[in-house]
């Protein structure tokens, strides 16, 4: 796995996760990433930033927020991502 930092420099978990996702997407055209805000917003803590631009909307897809589908308890509050995306 290549990265911009030197081999002896530590990387963050976010950088390691993004590198692993990028590696998996690049290695196999059947691999795709789906989740709340993983495309447009770059996922939680920016883990998937840049992957939508690099691999396109067919392979990096935002899914509906949990509060907008008919699963889970009706009283569950929407996540912050859901609240943010519903304002835009």
> What is the beta-strand fraction?
5-15%
Q: Can you summarize the main beta sheet? A: 2 strands, parallel
What is the H/E string?
A: HEHEH
Q: Would you tell me the overall average pLDDT? A: 81
* Tally of helical segments: 3
CA-CA gap between termini? 36 Å
Give unreliable regions as ranges. none
Strand line-up of the largest beta sheet: 1-2
Shape: globular
Count of strand segments: 2
Radius of gyration: 15 Å
Category by helix and strand content: mainly alpha
Helix content: 25-40%
Note the main attributes of this structure:
mainly alpha; 88 residues; 3 helices; 2 strands; 7% strand; two-stranded parallel sheet
In short:
With 88 residues, the chain is mostly helical. Helix content is 32%, strand content 7%. The longest helix has 15 residues, at 13-27.
